[in-house]
Amino acid sequence: MLLHKGHCEWQTRELNELTTPIKVSPEDDDDVCSELVDVHGYKVKAINVPILATIFVKYGDITVNCHYKSPTARASLLDEVSDVVRRLKTSDVSFSSIKAMKSVVSNAADAKLDVTWLQQYLDEISEEEDMEKVFLSIGVKRDYYHACL
């Protein structure tokens, strides 16, 4: 089944029973990916459907213990978590963006979404980023001292 709206296309394979497209409103035609799609009862941005469906397959319903009972509030959190995963998959990251992503995931965890897997991954790459900065700093200092000798 190929779902299409404007320039935003995605293909659902085995997910046909999990996803149902819905039109948000005619004003949303400005944003070609503003269509909301139902994934496991949560209406999320179309761009996040493949990622969220994969999260549900791999980790189950990560909202099962969520403090928020509103499906809209849960869907908003799921969109934010999916955005983080999408950015990580596309390598759209920097040190400052990792901090921002950690904050988003921390907020989701505070609401009791099961995102420990994502927190652990962000912690790991954050540590790697810190180590790179240390090595870079050591290298710069070493080069400076060698230049002074």
UniProtKB/TrEMBL annotation:
Highest taxon of source: Eukaryota
Which InterPro entries does the entry mention? PLipase-like
The record's section on PANTHER family has: OS06G0711100 PROTEIN (PTHR35358), PHOSPHOLIPASE-LIKE PROTEIN-RELATED (PTHR35358:SF18)
**Can you say what this protein is called?**
Uncharacterized protein
